[in-house]
Amino acid sequence: MTHSPKSLLILAPLTLSWFVSGLHGQDRPASPSMDVKRLIQLLGADSFRERDAAQKTLATRDEAIPALFRALPTLNAEALSRAKLLLASFAQRRTKLFLQYAREGRADLFAEWFAISEKPIDDAECWQGVLDIGWRVLERSRSAEELSSWAKPFPPRTFEEFLRRKPRIVDGDNVIAGVDSRKNLGIRSLDNVRTKGIESSVLIGTGSAAFDSADKCILVVVGDIKISRAADCLIIADGNVRLGGARNCVLAVRGMPSIDVDLDRPPTREARRFNNLPRGHLLLLPKAEPPPPGPPKIINPLMHRLQFFELADIGLELTEAGWRLRVASLRPGCTLATAGLRTNDVLISIDGSDIRVPNVARRLLRRSFVLGGGEITVERAGKRITIDVDFLNCELSLVNTAK
């Protein structure tokens, strides 16, 4: 078959148009309806156009945040940088909500959000939230006379006052690396921190931490903490706590109700283990030298408007089923029920992490709540099913304010 010169002139533009469109098809911008996992992959694409389009699309889809957070360890440098910007933007939009949780006394939710928010670590509102938590608990657990002895050396009530002390705002790993002065620090991001003493400082984060000493500090930790010598400290911890040489401390612990307190009785060091302490109580560790006999004073089971995240907050009750956990009940209409979780489902994993212990399930679901959603894999009638849960519109009730 042959074509006349005139017909070739007509076909040439059409052929060129088809060829160019084919090239553009390989570099199409992300569609608003594109699968979230594909959008996350495109954050690290070779083409700038694809990377930029994927980032802009993800910025409009808050439901993608949990998947984005789970993908962080797998991303290349370019994708990781863009993902962190998206997480920071998401956290900024939810700042008001988690500051409200801080004011209501939900310290562990605030600490979890603070740790994953990727916000600037010197953000005044956020640090003020930590100070508010600390002073609110102190005011409800100490007399005016006792508070007066804390006020001068202790972290102040406002971040503005704290700034006048010219504090260092650092990540936990920078404390390990060595800070010229370990006084007046604002510390976050606790990933197995092990270091010397801190003084007149504020600490908040997730993970574990160990210090030789802590004097006149506020510590809000979602994880385990060990302090060889603690004096004049407020410690709020979701995990296990071990203190030595403790003096004049206020301790609120949700974790294992077993606390080692080395009472420093000269000439020998007598260690006491207080077992079976009730969960969710404030413990007032004595100031006297030598301290009075008996366990620490225990007050107010609601910890004076301080409360930790529990499965009941999201309408879930679990029971042990061999080596696994089974859904015992769901509050009608709760977020988990709406997502498709059912009574008698057996939990396998949450966001890819294997689940066999109730407290692990609680912690992972708390993180999913803070992120706005997550994936729960269950076994039902011999089959494994993955359920997408959206917590973005789920808000927890106020902490009981009864005195």
Task: Describe what you observe in this structure.
The chain has 403 residues and is of the alpha/beta class. The chain folds into three domains: 32-90; 124-299, no CATH class; 311-390, PDZ domain (Pdz3 Domain, Roll), CATH 2.30.42.10. 35% of the residues lie in helices and 25% in strands. It contains 13 helices and 21 strands. Strands 1-2-5-7-9-11-14-15 form an eight-stranded mixed beta sheet. Strands 3, 4, 6, 8, 10, 12 and 13 form a seven-stranded mixed beta sheet that branches. The longest helix is centred in the first third of the chain and has 21 residues, at 5-25. It is globular, with a radius of gyration of 26 Å. The protein starts with a helix and ends in a 13-residue tail after the last strand. Residues 6-27, 176-181, 263-271 and 299-303 have low confidence and may be disordered.
